[in-house]
Amino acid sequence: MSALAKILISMGKIVCGSDRVHNEYVCDLISRGVSVSLDSDDARVEKCDVLVYTDAVKMDDPHILRAVKANKLIVPRGQLLATLCGCFKSTIAVAGCHGKTTCTSMLAHIFACADKQFTVHIGGNDNAFGNCRVVGYDYFITEACEFNKNFLLIKPDISIILNTDADHLECYDGEEDLLRSYRLFAVNSKKSACLYGDRCGRGDVTFGTDESADYRARNIKSAGGKYSFDVYEQGRKLCHASLNVYGRHNIVNALAAVSASRLAGIRAEAIEEGLSRFAGVERRFEKIGEINGCEVIADYAHHPREITATLRAAAEVTSGEIYVIFQPHTYSRTKNLFGDFVNCLSGIDNLLIYKTFAAREYFDAEGSALALSNAIKNSRYAESEREIKYFLRNVSGEDKVFVLGAGDIYYIVRQMLKSN
Description:
Protein-Tyrosine Phosphatase, Chain A; alpha/beta; 3 domains
């Protein structure tokens, strides 16, 4: 939401907002002249033209009730994003269960190196650009989230489908309905780039490590967990890619960015330079501090496939023991993918499962962090900072701690490290 607010400000709109807590996003907006209230019932709603709300806000929220009573236009965040897409000459939308933020950020660096007039809307914080950068209004690069089928509101000029793994199933009538929605997202696009072999089907171009993909990686090399490779475009070498982020899974994210860039007519030299300049995103294999001389790394991984990819990268850069603190994100995701979570976490020798970040949901014992911990041999369950400190009491310099999850565990551990 804060990135959308910044884009609206760049367009000359007057923006005010409301949040539950005073955080870094609130501070950033205030520094830009935005009036932000922490009141649970804000009378300013009656003076606004449009009220925009996120999917985490319930319809009985006092702000929405005030807007209804005042006969204001009420718009969900997904609809605002779709409306903004229409303000640009061309839209590039990145969809998929994993990798959206990384791929979107990669695209931003490529378009910057190509001297394009673009605006990027990022679902996280790129280490150089933050969650938004406004250079111009020719291209709009954005993430397209599948939650509540919001991505179907967007009709992109170029779409990317990174993968179609099961997630947010509480919003769909099963996995087949999810797949149909991804296929419709591709159909709604003028041009589409899809992961080769994915169940979404073939797009206008495909990307991946398979030899049959239109954009593929060859001569893959790893140096300390960071990868380099040659990019081939329909059988011919296009450029060389040297990634400054950890993990083999980022090869596919980079190939996706390459395919969309080429559909937009970007030259190979700008692609190569842009990928090399991309230095990562907050909460994606990010070092957030140390404890007892041991590095603490945070990653947004909250889906079994993401956790597996992060743990694979962790093994490449750790000579000692791996300690994992995992916070499940939403009861529904944990319940729907319970067996997958058990499988991907069961091989960890030092595992702490922290209480669930509920987000928009109510308690469900079957999908709780405690239920997950009970199902995994040797795992521990925690609800406090004190228990986290006890879990990490024996770590040493050769070990590494990985803090995984999309909830508030990132801020809890980061603050704990600062106060040590």
